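Task 17 of the worksheet. Students: predict the tertiary structure of the chain below and write it out as structure tokens. Keep your answer in the requested format; marks are given for formatting as well as content.
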Amino acid sequence: MLTEGGGGMKVGSASQVSEFDVSSCDPDVADVWLRAAYVDYRRRLHGDLSTFRFAFTGASVPSFSIATVHHGMGFECETDLLDDAIVVNTTLAGRIEVATGRTVVVPTPGVPYLMPPGRPWTIQWEQLTNEAVRIDRPVLERAAAGMGGDGEALRFTGSTPSSPEWASYLRAVTAHVRDEVLGNPDTAAHPLALAEAARSLAVATLLSIPNNAVAAAEDLTTRERPGAEPAVVRRAVEFMDANAHREVDVAQVADAAHIGIRGLQAAFRRHRDQTPLEYLRRVRLEQAHRDLQAADPAQGLTVAAIAARWGFTHPGRFSVDYRRAYGLSPRQTLKN
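Model answer:
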């Protein structure tokens, strides 16, 4: 451990994952880490400096991060604009208020909320403990396109989940990615698993917090679906079949099919009653099935390792999907 600012710092890395565990009694150390992780700011502190404690624990990959922050003083700041990512926070203890323009957000503890995008923030907190999820904007935009967005710039129309159920869903997906992907070195070693984790966080955010992409996708599902399967769908299918082992987004599939994203989504809905990425997930499930059939468990291969190889980071969900498709559990296939 490296000693710094009256506290300690541990930073480790496995594969693309960078883990950090920082503690300090020095507000300047806190500023360095928070500015590097999120956005620059000008701050004022209130309270007894001799009792200050800062802790910053979590993990990051190139496209997202999940961290728990404790800052033990009264804090006020004005930030610069964060335009290349979004931040979804959940207050675990203390109180925070976020203002931008005429919008003021006073979050309910335990309920995720979106830091209002598109403008700098004015932030106040007291003795805050907070979980922060940072997602790069290109990840969100690819997820929105994959859900059937209409190609317009992604725009959030609310800052909190549309229901308690969606709030619980977003927190559950965050906990899964934090504990079962970033916290599992075997899973985190697979680039496809990390890409799927990023997509899962983005999709959960889009489904939970109101935005124009989901509204457009819901409109798309009401369109008519008759007719023969066109060449663009066949080209898309061929591309996904050939590249299922790689990180693939819907824009790449549309390029390979020689059609726009909107047209591709509509064609798949009309002729296959699914999205392109739902088809891709089915292809990867089939590849995992083949690997399970061919694997020798005596060599140490596990269901979890094979699932992660194909981007399935949630063992329970993989098992359910697998049993639904093949009539037996993945463990049974591996043993037989």
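Marker's comment: The chain has two domains: 2-137, 140-335. The mean pLDDT is 88.
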